[in-house]
Amino acid sequence: LGKNTLKIKTLALAISAFFAGIAGAFYASYITFIDPSSFTILQLIPVLAIVIVGGLASLKGTVAATIILVLLPESLRFIGFPSSVVGPARQIIYALVLLLILVFKPKGFYGKIELD
Fold first, then answer.
1. Does residue 47 sit in the same domain as residue 15?
2. Most exposed of 4, 63, 74, 116 (fewest Cβ within 10 Å)?
3. Is the same domain home to 54 and 8?
4. Do 47 and 28 reside in the same domain of the chain?
């Protein structure tokens, strides 16, 4: 009766590890050098913001959040702000969007799981 959860969880881990490995290979070939200092909290914040804003367990939401959270900060480059303002403004945009989504739509755009 039921499904073998160990088998399903192991398969999910293997598939996600495969895609993480592919992404890592593309990233390494793009920047041509990898070291532990390449992965700081500043690289993690946009990824977490995209997942939370899009909604956990939602592919449509993740794609929508990626489009929004990539285009908003990139639009600052064309407005004419000095480069010393663009970096902090990008983090402020991520924080504001994240806070607004968590307050008004806790499940994200298309989320199935609510963050408590």
1. no
2. 116
3. no
4. no
First to last CA, the chain: 32
Determine the structural domain holding residue 4 and report its residue range.
1-37
Residues 86 and 51 in one domain: yes
Do 85 and 52 sit in the same domain of this protein? yes
Q: Distance between CA atoms of 50 and 34, rounded to whole angstroms?
A: 24
Taking the CA atoms of the chain, what radius of gyration do you get in angstroms?
A: 17
pTM: predicted TM-score of the whole model, two decimal places: 0.66
In angstroms, what CA-CA distances link 97 with 19, 43, 45, 58?
Answer: 27, 17, 12, 18
Q: What is the mean pLDDT of each run of 10 residues along the chain (116 residues)?
A: 86 94 91 84 83 83 88 79 78 85 84 65
CA 16 vs. chain centroid, Å, equals 15
User: CA distances (Å), 74 to each of 3, 29, 43, in order?
Assistant: 45, 23, 15
SS (H, E, C) 34-90: CCHHHCCHHHHHHHHHHHHHHCECCHHHHHHHHHHHHHHHHHHHHHCCCHHHHHHHH
